[in-house]
Amino acid sequence: MTGWTPDELMTVNAARALAGARTCFVGIGLPSAAANLARRTAQPELVLVYESGALGAKPSRLPLSIGDGELADTADAVVSVPEMFNYWLQAGRIDVGFLGAAQLDRYANINTTAVDRGPDRPEGRLPGAGGAPEIAASCGAVLIVLRHSTRNMVDRLDFVTSVGHGSGPRDRSRLGLLGKGPVAVITDLGILRPDPGTAELTLTEVHPGVTVEQVRAATGWPLKIAGTVAVTGPPTPAELAALRAMKAA
After folding, report:
1. HEC states along the chain?
2. Fewer Cβ neighbours under 10 Å: the N or C end of the chain?
3. CB 226 within 8 A of CB 202
4. Is the whole model's pTM more than 0.90, yes or no?
5. What range does the domain containing 124 cover?
6. Catalytic: 51?
């Protein structure tokens, strides 16, 4: 028995992955929960940036969307969307972009647009791209958080919304994309990182109580495993308290 849920464990580890970042361009949902937790615990000076134009947002509760008034009310400044993208994001002024995904492939490419539902059925529409393609292209590094299953971690995307590492380590430079691209994928089972040579996602850490075989079984491609797989640290009482208070607000 543990005193936390898999989602709480994932969110805590996603928040920890922001260590050292000064600015974070935040996607809504799981990324927003992790980024706000980081700011409430180990990184109170972390500047949260939302694509609606909020710079330095400090919401007292988890925002419902990028248009949540709480973001503008608590921001250091609110700028226009064109300024946000042209001056702050695409100019390379954001350290980390934090994204979610409906589908993810072995090179950390993301689909948030549409899924194939099978013969004679219309495609399933997803929330869409929003600013994710530009976040994935232009931030200094990208973190991705999602729940781990063969439905989400797929061998081939139904649609490429945001480029991670394309089909290998040279694709980002060939496409003229700034930054390192995805540097970690945090799930409710563990953490995957791109191999330095191939850029293919490799399991480097599992969460307490999770086995390598569980992660393999939940992945839709033959998953590469690091020579040594570490175990992430459990959430601290302070991290759990902050996360639960934030969600209850």
Report:
1. CCCCCHHHHHHHHHHHCCCCCCEEEECCCHHHHHHHHHHHCCCCCCEEECCCCEECCCCCCCCCCCCCHHHHHHCCEECCHHHHHHHHHCCCCCCEEEECCCEECCCCCEECCEECCCCCCCCEECCCCCCHHHHHHHCCEEEEECCCCCCCECCCCCCCCECCCCCCCCHHHHHCCCCCCEEEEECCCEEEEECCCCCCEEEEEECCCCCHHHHHHCCCCCCEEEEEEEECCCCCHHHHHHHHHHHHC
2. N
3. yes
4. yes
5. 6-248
6. yes
Number of domains in the chain: 1
Q: Is residue 226 part of a domain?
A: yes
Q: What percent of the chain has pLDDT over 90?
A: 90
Is 187:220 a contact under the CB 8 Å cutoff?
no
Query: For position 75, which CATH number holds?
Result: 3.40.1080.10
Residue of 167, 209, 175, 161 lying closest to 189 (CA atoms): 209
Q: Calculate the alpha carbon distances from 116 to 120, 123, 167 in Å.
A: 10, 5, 21
Asked if the structure places residue 78 within a domain, the reply is yes
Reported as a single tens digit per residue, the pLDDT across 9-50 is 999 999 999 999 999 999 989 999 999 999 999 999 999 999
- Output the furthest CA–CA distance in the chain (Å, rounded): 52
1 located within any domain: no
Which of 20, 4, 15, 45 minimizes the C-alpha distance to 237?
4
- The answer to whether position 147 is within a domain reads yes
Catalytic residue, candidates 8, 45, 51, 200 = 51
Output the pLDDT for position 196. Answer: 96
